[in-house]
Amino acid sequence: MNGLNKGIRKVEIALRWDPSPAGQPPTDLDIVAATYFADDPQGAPAYVVHFDSRSPDGTIYLNRDSKDGKGFGWDEVMTVELDRLDARYARVVVGVVIQQHPDHRTFVSVVNPAVRIREGYTDLAEDDFGGVLGSTAATVAEFVRVPSDGWSFRSGVQGFEDDPATFTRIMGRLRQS
Predict the structure, then answer these.
(1) Rounded distance, CA 93 to CA 163, Å?
(2) For the segment 120-140, what is each residue's pLDDT rounded down to a tens digit?
(3) What is the full DSSP assignment across 76-94?
């Protein structure tokens, strides 16, 4: 990057899926984001933002939340204002978790799931979770602060087979290749 490039500044993570077939319980997917301190970027999250919360400084927030996939277009949307995040945070990991009530579900049982990550009008990544069909949750993006260049984006979907609470504790572990 050159001196005029400020890196990634503000991103939108959007999630969609179709409602469950008639007679089946609703499918509920949630976007979650975890921040990590610069002095321990692989450690425990400093805080986690999800459907019932927002970041303490207002830089990460959920714009839209769906419990059943019956929205028009993108069912859930989260905004991450990286350029406003305090310097003590060096990493943000974003994931998607399938709520496990009342039935155990994996991505194979979610109808037409998709995630899109964009900055402004530029799509940074899109995925349909096809590589993690047996998972109950997945990380979808990682943003890392580069001291001289701002924030960089690492794409890739990595599946997990944990309950939502466990997933939010371990989602920031080193990504597997």
Answers:
(1) 17
(2) 999 999 999 999 999 999 999
(3) EEEEEEGGGS-TTEEEEEE
Centre a 10 Å sphere on the Cβ of residue 163 and count the other Cβ atoms it contains.
Answer: 14
SS (H, E, C) the chain: CCCCCCEECEEEEEEECCCCCCCCCCCCEEEEEEEEECCCCCCCCCEEECCCCCCCCCCEEEEECCCCCCCCCCCEEEEEEHHHCCCCEEEEEEEEEECCCCCCCCHHHCCCCEEEEEECCEEEEEECCHHHCCCCEEEEEEEEEECCCEEEEEEEEEEECCCHHHHHHHCCCCCCC
Better-scored residue on pLDDT, 12 or 102: 12
